Please model this.
Amino acid sequence: MNDLTDLISARSNELFYYSPYNFIHDFSKEIQFKNCVENVIINFENENNNNVYKITCDGQLHQFYVTKLSWDTQYFGINTIKLKYVLYAHQNFGMLQNAVREFLNIISSEKKYCFIEIPSEDILLLKAITSNSFNLIETRLTYFRRNLSAFNNERYAVRKANLSDTENLKRVARVMRNDFDRFHADPVFSKEIADEFLATYIEQSIKGFADVVLVPDETGIPADSFLTANYLKDDWTKNKINISKMVLSAVSAQTNKGWYKKLVSEMTYHLYNEGAEYIYMNTQSTNRAVIYTWEKLGYKLGCTTHILSYNNL
Ligand SMILES: CC(C)(COP(=O)(O)OP(=O)(O)OC[C@H]1O[C@@H](n2cnc3c(N)ncnc32)[C@H](O)[C@@H]1OP(=O)(O)O)[C@@H](O)C(=O)NCCC(=O)NCCS
Model:
C-alpha cells in the first residue's frame, strides 16, 4: 500500500484538519479536502524548497513532507525547515515512533531546526512526535466569524498605515512583546531577535506583504497600534467561498489601551466591504485579552493546533 493516493486516503480523517478552513461548514468538505490538502500533497515536490523524506520502518513506508524556509534561514541564521505532513498507512504507535526517530536522526545530521503545526485531532502523530524530543512551543487557537452582513458594532476612526508610520509601528511591535507566540516561546530565538522579527514583519506588511494595515485615526490619539490582514482573494474562485484573514496586531498599553477591539471591529467592516464572507485569525491559548475581544465581537472558536519544534543544532 505505497501508492500516494492510498497513503493520503489512509490518513484522510486526520489530514482534513490540516486544511486551514476545516471549521467552515459552508465550505464543501470534498472541495476543501481536494484543494487544501490532497492537491497540496500531490503537487508538493513540484515546489522549490520542498522535499519528501521517505523512511521505511518495519516494512511500512512513512513520508515526511518538509519545506525549507529560506527567508527564516537567512533572517535568523538558523537552517529552518517546516514539517508539513507525515503520511503512513497504519495505526501502530511504536512503528510511527521509530519512523519519527529516524527522520530526526537525518535532520540532525543535516543540522536543521524543524517545527511543525499539528491539529489536536492528529493524536497518534502528536504522541509519536512528543515522545521523540519535539518540544511544545505554542497552543494556537483559530477563531472565525461568518454572517458578516449582520455585523453591527459602533464605528471608530481608523486609516490605512503608510510608509511614514513604519518606524513608529516597528517600535510598538518591539515593545508589545507577546511571550507566548512561537518566536518568543522557542528558546532557539533570543527575546531580542524575536522582538526584531515582529518589527520586521510589520515593516514588510506596510510595504505590501499585507493587503491592508489599519491604525487609529482619532484626534489627539497617536497611531500607536496596528492590525494587518490579507484578503486571500486568489483562493476565492477556486474554493467557491470568500475567506479572509486578520494576521498581526499590537496595541500600545501606554497610549492606545482598548484599541484592539476598535481595530478588529473596523477590520471586520473593511474585509466585509472587500467581499469576504468569512474572516479567521489565530492567537495563542494564553492570549485572554484577544480571545475576550473576539468573542465580544461575535467571533467563535474554530480549531486548535499545537506548534512543536526540534532543535539539535
Ligand atoms: C493583546 C493586545 C492587542 C490587547 O490590547 P488592548 O486593546 O489594549 O487590550 P485591553 O487590555 O484593553 O483588553 C481587551 C479586553 O480584554 C479584557 N481582558 C484583558 N485581559 C484579560 C484576561 N486576562 N482575561 C479576560 N479578559 C481580559 C479587557 O478587560 C478588555 O475588555 P473590555 O473591552 O471589556 O474592557 C495588546 O496587549 C498587545 O499588543 N499585546 C502584545 C501583542 C499581541 O499579543 N497581539 C495579539 C496577537 S493575536
Observations:
- The longest helix spans residues 191-209.
- Residues 176, 178, 249-251, 253, 257-261, 283, 287-290, 292-293 surround coenzyme A (CB under 6 Å).
- Residues 4 and 42 are 8 Å apart (CA to CA).
- The first strand starts at residue 50 and ends at 57.
